[in-house]
Amino acid sequence: MSDKVIISCAVTGSVHTPTMSPHLAITPEQIAEQAIEAAEAGAAILHLHARDPADGRPTPDPKVFDRFVPRIKAATDAVINITTGGSTRMTLAERLAYPLQAAPEMCSLNMGSMNFTIHPVARKITNWQHGWEKPYVEGMEDLIFRNTFADIKHILQVLGRERGTRFEFECYDMGHLYTLAHFRDEGLIDGPIFLQCIFGILGGLGADPENLVAMRTTADRLFGRDGYRFSVLGAGRHQMPLLTMAAVMGGNVRVGLEDSLYLGKGQLASSCAEQVRKIRRILDELSLEVATPAEARTLLALKGADAVNF
C-alpha cells in the first residue's frame, strides 16, 4: 500500500475567476457535484474552497461551506480537506472561520508569506462577466499572501493540536521546506508529513523538472525518505507533465480546476473529474496503483470521517 498513489483534487480555489472558464464550479451545488464526481473518478482527497454563489468571488463564509461540505461527505468517503489559505484578501480569522468550526480530517497550510499572482492573465481578457474580477486579478500584483511564522504556529495549534486535523503542507519554494522542518523540530508537527510541492505560480518556484528534483532531494535531507509523503501540484499547462514525473519519482499527485483550467493544449477541462480520469489513465500506464480514501487515511494517519463536525 505504501507504493500507491494518492490523487488529490482541488475543486475550485480562489485564483481563477468565472470569466476564465464556464466550467469553474461557483455555486454550492456545482462545487458539490464536481467534488463528488472527482471522488467517483478516483480522487481520495478533495481540497475545498467556497465561492459566493451570486458572482463567484471567493468567500470564507461558513454558511456557504455548510451548503456543500456535508453533502459531499454524505455522498462519498473521500477525505475532505478544507483550505486555510482562503485568498490573499482574507484575514487569518476569516480563513480559519470554517476550519475551526468543522474540525476536518485535513486542512491545507501554506508554509510561508510570498508574492502570489496571476496578474499578467488580465491582459488577455477584454470582457469580464463580473465587475469584481478584473481588479481582483490585476490587484494581485501589489499583494502579499501572508503566512507568518506566528500565523503558521497558530494554525498548527488550534487545528492540529486542539482538533486533531492533519495538514497538506503547501510549499511553493525551497525555503518553505526549511520552515516546515523548523516547526517539526519545535514539536508542533508529527509524522507522517504530507508535503505538497507547488510549481508554476508566479512568485514561487518555476515549473522546471530540475526544481522538482531539488525539492525532493531537499525533503529527503530534512525529513528522511520515510518521514514524509511527497505530492506535486503543477499550475496551468505544467499540470500533467510534472505530475507524471512526480509519480515516476514515487510521489502523489494533485489535479483540479483550482490548479489548471485545461485538460490539454487549448482544451478547457469540462470538470475536475475529467482531469482526475486523465491522470489516472497515466498512472495506469505507468503500472501504478491509486490509493482509495481508506488507504489514504492510513498512509496519512488521519483521524477519520467520524471525528469531524459536519
UniProtKB/TrEMBL annotation:
This is 3-keto-5-aminohexanoate cleavage protein. GO terms for molecular function: 3-keto-5-aminohexanoate cleavage activity; metal ion binding. It comes from the Bacteria. Signal peptide: none annotated. InterPro entries: Aldolase_TIM (IPR013785), BKACE (IPR008567). It holds the Pfam family BKACE. Keywords: Metal-binding, Transferase, Zinc. Its cofactor is Zn(2+). PANTHER family: 3-KETO-5-AMINOHEXANOATE CLEAVAGE ENZYME (PTHR37418:SF2), 3-KETO-5-AMINOHEXANOATE CLEAVAGE ENZYME-RELATED (PTHR37418).
